[in-house]
Amino acid sequence: MANKLKKKTPPPAPDPAKLKEDKEAKVTVTEVVKDERTTKIAGAVSLLVAIFLFIAFTSYIFTWKEDQDMARLGVGIFTADDVKVTNLLGALGAYISHTFIANGFGLASYLFCTFFFVLGVNLLFGKKVYSLARNLRYLILGLLVISVALAFPTKGAEFSWGGATGEMMSDWLVKVTGKVGTTLILALAVLSYVIWRFNPVFKMPQRKPRTMKAAPPPPAETDEAEAEEMLPVYPFAKGDPGVLETGDAVEDNNNKLKNGGKNISVIMPKQQAVNEDPMIAFEVNEKEIAEDAGLVTAIPPKEINDLYAAGLMKEPLADEEEPATGEPVAEPVTVKTPRKNATPQDMELEIKQTVDDEIVDTEAEADMEDNDDAFDSEAVDDAGKANEEDEKVYPFTNFKIPDGDYEPTLELRDYKFPALDLLEAHGSEKIVHDPAELEANKNQIIATLKNYDIAIQRIAATVGPTVTLYEIVPAPGVRISRIKNLEDDIALSLAALGIRIIAPIPGKGTIGIEVPNVRKTVVSMKTLLASDKFQHNSFALPIAIGKKIDNENFIVDLASMPHLLMAGATGQGKSVGINALLVSLLYKKHPSQLKFVLVDPKKVELSIYRVIEKHFLAKLPGEEESIITDTKKVVYTLNALCIEMDNRYDLLKEAGCRNIKEYNEKFVKRKLNPQKGHQFLPFIVLVVDEFADLIMTAGKEVEMPIARLAQLARAVGIHLIIATQRPSVNIITGTIKANFPARIAFKVSSKIDSRTILDAGGAEQLIGKGDMLVSYNGEITRLQCAFVDTPEVDRVVDFIGDQRGYPQAFLLPEYVDEKEMEGKDFDVADRDPLFEDAARLIVQNQMGSTSLIQRRMKLGYNRAGRLMDQLEAAGIVGKNLGSKARDVLVHSETELEEILGGF
Ligand SMILES: Nc1ncnc2c1ncn2[C@@H]1O[C@H](COP(=O)(O)OP(=O)(O)OP(=O)(O)O)[C@@H](O)[C@H]1O
């Protein structure tokens, strides 16, 4: 040691000339002003001024009497010899307080403290923590309103509550409007100021959330500053919505967090808050976070026990369970906040742009009305004036119909599409942001990870209607599987049900943690249907299902799905989901284009649609009820649908078309002869509300036709929506599953059920009430299902049902149970009831073709073949000639009537 000390030689003295030269070259006044330290010092000074004013003013309230004589000396107070002031801040405090309070604005002068505080914080932290412009507006208006409001009722009092300015303005007001007028004006002004400044959401202090709706309405010319006013507010930063930095403890009652927010900066990106889908970027100061690591242990043992009891401890998801959250809508855009004196700890404003652009702000709601009109009139226009234009785009069919072409809607040409105002917005359409909740969850996630020595680079949040997605970018070298294995720990530390970890989010290189929001937002059907994506798409069967986490509307084409399997435990939103699908189709399709076959073993869920029987429903010939509830009838109906499918395939084959779209186009262009059985083919959507019930009672009899339809019916425009409460393997068999690539899972009771429906876990962790996972196109997306209430559906179907419909429901082909017909084939007495009709058809057309009977009489192949055999036996047609049509032996109808009369 001694040696070392000895060896240590003093550094060589710097060359003074050189030093001088350097200094002169580097330091300029501008640089001093721009220097980060100068700004920080200015910030500190400003904060000091705020504190100084606060103490001086407060002290003045108690000492003004003693000090007022001194204060009246003006600046002389600083030079007079015998000055004795009692203000805590001495002569300066007394003088300034007197100037601000007595000569100025009375107690409203406290607003100056907030102004300097805001200025100080902004300068000190080198960023726009609070909006200065907004505070300036609050200050100016507050000074005017508060000073007059205080001066008026306290006129004549010893203490100058409203200051000289307040008194002067109050006197003037009294002179102009009288005492009563002044009272009213002031009451109004104070009320308006309070509403503007502390808006009504502050009435709920238990959570202190702030919705977008709660933001003050922006003035006509919305600028950046105004936009900021719509940002959420931190509880402790009351009145300074938007941004938080270095907050003290953010305490969330639900999460029992203590001391969560220190040294973490949060920026609420204003642009997104105004639009929708805010991406809230948290920047993490890792060094300091280490101190927060103890947070997890802050959960009391009792709560941990509760969480165990609530079943929160669960196995981590297996690899193949990891679902994709939505399509990669747009890559996050990173915008460096333009500001001076950037330091390594500086924040970045990360904005995740979304595709969708409606909802969330109040403006969108106002637009809704316009959308209603546009949507409505467009549909009615298209339907009603179809033949007034030379060439028109047929409503929602996506092909053009020139003059002279067949118009399928002609029979119901006055049909009016339901208007959007039949639906409700369901109160809050606004995504609720609770910054305290976000902050607390973020801190918990970081702290939990930190506990396991997992460092992260960044964490960002996307607030959805039901859940918030926290995206984590782990530090280089961190194994993803480690984070995945912490699912239970994170769920435990957040004390919330329904947490899912997606590691990694496909295509993004981040890890997602979905945490349910404390306050959830209802996604109304109305918003979805009013959206541009729904109104202007080229889908054959557009269905609005719900909203993704990033608030993008999930609107897809049922025709390309092409069938949908829905499962979910009872009470989790299945029926609402089915109604949402049906209502979206009713809003987009003309009765000539779409028919529903509704199967409802529960007998109550779909009966509401009975009133649209003559417009949109299909049923078996001779049936009273159009909603099928009886299992036997369901079997008949499914088989009838199979016959319809076969018949349609025959038609398509004959027309040389590959699918229903080509066929209908050809038919509309009058290239197909209706005399040969051709007709415009509407889409048919089969909806089964409780599939499990059917399988239990009819088993294979139901499963087989369903599987057949699912395999083949797509090209001929028959689509299936099958829902079940019990997604067990004996209900959703391999055959069914294989043919339903698109599946929806509402909350289910077990992971096994989730695997049965989605081939992946996750649905057991949903939170119910329309929270769902959709497996579509190989991706699993979490959605909040659109909500449409029964009264709304009632209004829509009544609106349709009140209009003129077809004379009867769309008739499906008749199905006769083969077993019932056995042994009756050639018994003349037991001849098929349709024998005479078939005979007339054959004689009229002079064509002994089984497929003609099949198509025109809407019969299955077997029954048509049997009829043909009976016709042969009766001598009406000749022998079977293989692929060629049989000879017709009766050449006129008179001759036929004679033969028939003889039987
Ligand atoms: N998308 C949604 N948004 C908000 N709340 C919903 C949503 N879907 C369902 N709910 C709530 O959940 C309740 C139950 O929904 P629903 O009747 O659709 O359940 P279900 O799964 O069909 O039940 P069941 O199988 O017993 O008929 C509804 O009354 C509603 O309050």
UniProtKB/TrEMBL annotation:
<keyword id="KW-0472">Membrane</keyword>
<dbReference type="GO" id="GO:0007059">
    <property type="term" value="P:chromosome segregation"/>
</dbReference>
<dbReference type="InterPro" id="IPR036390">
    <property type="entry name" value="WH_DNA-bd_sf"/>
</dbReference>
<keyword id="KW-0132">Cell division</keyword>
<dbReference type="InterPro" id="IPR027417">
    <property type="entry name" value="P-loop_NTPase"/>
</dbReference>
<keyword id="KW-1003">Cell membrane</keyword>
<feature type="transmembrane region" description="Helical">
    <location>
        <begin position="172"/>
        <end position="196"/>
    </location>
</feature>
<dbReference type="Pfam" id="PF01580">
    <property type="entry name" value="FtsK_SpoIIIE"/>
</dbReference>
<dbReference type="Pfam" id="PF13491">
    <property type="entry name" value="FtsK_4TM"/>
</dbReference>
<keyword id="KW-0159">Chromosome partition</keyword>
<comment type="similarity">
    <text>Belongs to the FtsK/SpoIIIE/SftA family.</text>
</comment>
<dbReference type="Pfam" id="PF17854">
    <property type="entry name" value="FtsK_alpha"/>
</dbReference>
<keyword id="KW-0067">ATP-binding</keyword>
<keyword id="KW-0812">Transmembrane</keyword>
<dbReference type="InterPro" id="IPR025199">
    <property type="entry name" value="FtsK_4TM"/>
</dbReference>
<protein>
    <submittedName>
        <fullName>DNA translocase FtsK 4TM domain-containing protein</fullName>
    </submittedName>
</protein>
<dbReference type="GO" id="GO:0005886">
    <property type="term" value="C:plasma membrane"/>
</dbReference>
<keyword id="KW-0238">DNA-binding</keyword>
<dbReference type="InterPro" id="IPR018541">
    <property type="entry name" value="Ftsk_gamma"/>
</dbReference>
<dbReference type="GO" id="GO:0003677">
    <property type="term" value="F:DNA binding"/>
</dbReference>
<dbReference type="GO" id="GO:0051301">
    <property type="term" value="P:cell division"/>
</dbReference>
<feature type="region of interest" description="Disordered">
    <location>
        <begin position="365"/>
        <end position="388"/>
    </location>
</feature>
<keyword id="KW-0547">Nucleotide-binding</keyword>
<feature type="transmembrane region" description="Helical">
    <location>
        <begin position="136"/>
        <end position="152"/>
    </location>
</feature>
<dbReference type="Pfam" id="PF09397">
    <property type="entry name" value="FtsK_gamma"/>
</dbReference>
<dbReference type="InterPro" id="IPR050206">
    <property type="entry name" value="FtsK/SpoIIIE/SftA"/>
</dbReference>
<feature type="compositionally biased region" description="Acidic residues">
    <location>
        <begin position="365"/>
        <end position="381"/>
    </location>
</feature>
<keyword id="KW-0131">Cell cycle</keyword>
<feature type="domain" description="FtsK">
    <location>
        <begin position="551"/>
        <end position="755"/>
    </location>
</feature>
<dbReference type="InterPro" id="IPR036388">
    <property type="entry name" value="WH-like_DNA-bd_sf"/>
</dbReference>
<feature type="transmembrane region" description="Helical">
    <location>
        <begin position="100"/>
        <end position="124"/>
    </location>
</feature>
<keyword id="KW-1133">Transmembrane helix</keyword>
<feature type="transmembrane region" description="Helical">
    <location>
        <begin position="41"/>
        <end position="62"/>
    </location>
</feature>
<dbReference type="GO" id="GO:0005524">
    <property type="term" value="F:ATP binding"/>
</dbReference>
<dbReference type="InterPro" id="IPR041027">
    <property type="entry name" value="FtsK_alpha"/>
</dbReference>
<feature type="region of interest" description="Disordered">
    <location>
        <begin position="1"/>
        <end position="20"/>
    </location>
</feature>
<feature type="binding site">
    <location>
        <begin position="568"/>
        <end position="575"/>
    </location>
    <ligand>
        <name>ATP</name>
    </ligand>
</feature>
<dbReference type="InterPro" id="IPR002543">
    <property type="entry name" value="FtsK_dom"/>
</dbReference>
